[in-house]
Amino acid sequence: MNTSARILESQRKWADQAGVAYDSKGYVRDLDLNLFEPLSDDVRREFEEGDGDELGGNGKMRALHSSSALCCNVFSYLRTHDLLGDFLDICGLPVGPLASVRFEGRFPITDRHQPARFPGPAHLDLVMEYSQSGDLRAVAVESKFTEPYGAHAPRLRQAYLEAPELWQGLDHCHVLAGKLAEGGAGFKHLDAAQLIKHILALRNRYGPRGAILLYLWYDECGPEAQLHREDTDCFAATVTADGVGFMSMTYQSLIPALAQRLGAAHKAYVEYLGGRYLA
Asked: Per residue, what are the HEC states of the chain?
């Protein structure tokens, strides 16, 4: 059984124990069955406005193995109960205050209108903007569940390399982008091209040192997971050599830290996360 299949099997086991019915593909009938708490009006609107079709015809968030459902289960509660400062503190980041929080943040790669070269904006799972002025203006989260454990051949459009203004001060990232455009770079389980686009978009929006990209992923055992860890470490070493704000954290590290921090006051929430994603 490969890594993705093991994760899906663990989610089916959780659903069976919780009395949550699902179909042969691992999709629940009602979205609320896949969430710790129903979506608030704001969160629902943000997902509806996003590009991921999470709530649309395909209803991808209804999948037991949905990374959006995982991200929402962790962060929607923290947002609703004003606990995102605890998350930021766990990460060693400034606690706030926060001016805005948004799921499905979309940011253009460049402010120049070039839809033929850059057909779509970068799509971040969660973006938190600070209200106080300073060097660090935002923290953005890219969340992964089973995605890293399929085969990846990340490629970057040649158009990115033909825009030298994107790469000022990003020499190491530029070299990596060239390899990705050629179909190389050696990454087997990390979508490095997506992360490079995120870095460029955040840099365009917040400036060279204005944002941190947090890659938050679900760890597992086995050779695929080990290769993904190696890919992530290699990518981090490359981009941080240019001074890019990039961090990596696993859900297996975050969830116990949240449980220890929040304790009995948020017992149902931490027990849900632990029982579903750490069992």
From this structure: CCHHHHHHHHHHHHHHHHCCCECCCCEECCHHHHCCCCCCHHHHHHHHHCCCCCCCCCCHHHECCCHHHHHHHHHHHHHHCCCHHHHHHHCCCCCCCEEEEEEEEEECCCCCCCCCCCCCCEEEEEEEEECCCCCCCEEEEEEECCHHHCCCCCCCCHHHHCCHHHHCCCHHHHHHHHHHHCCCCCCCCCCHHHHHHHHHHHHHHHCCCCEEEEEEECCCCCHHHHHHHHHHHHHHHHHHCCCCCEEEEEHHHHHHHHHHHHHHHHHHHHHHHHHHHCC
Q: Do residues 251 and 10 lie in contact, with contact meaning Cβ atoms separated by under 8 Å?
A: no
Model confidence, pTM:
0.94
Cα separation, 219 vs 229, whole angstroms: 8
Residue 274 token pair? 């632990």
Range of the domain at 163: 3-277
Tokens in use for 120? 């779509």
Q: Say yes or no to pLDDT of 184 above 90.
A: no
Contacts of 121 (CB under 8 A, 6+ apart): 106, 107, 108, 109, 201
- Structure-token pair, residue 89: 């503190």
d(CA 116, CA 60): 28
Strand partners, 128: 101, 139
When divided into structural domains, the chain yields a total of 1
Question: What number is the average pLDDT over the span 198-218?
Answer: 96
> Residue 98: beta bridge partners?
130
Q: Give the pair of three-digit tokens for residue 193.
A: 């091209």
The partner residues of 33 in beta bridges, in order of sequence, read: none
Give per-residue pLDDT as tens, 37-59: 999 999 999 998 877 667 866 68
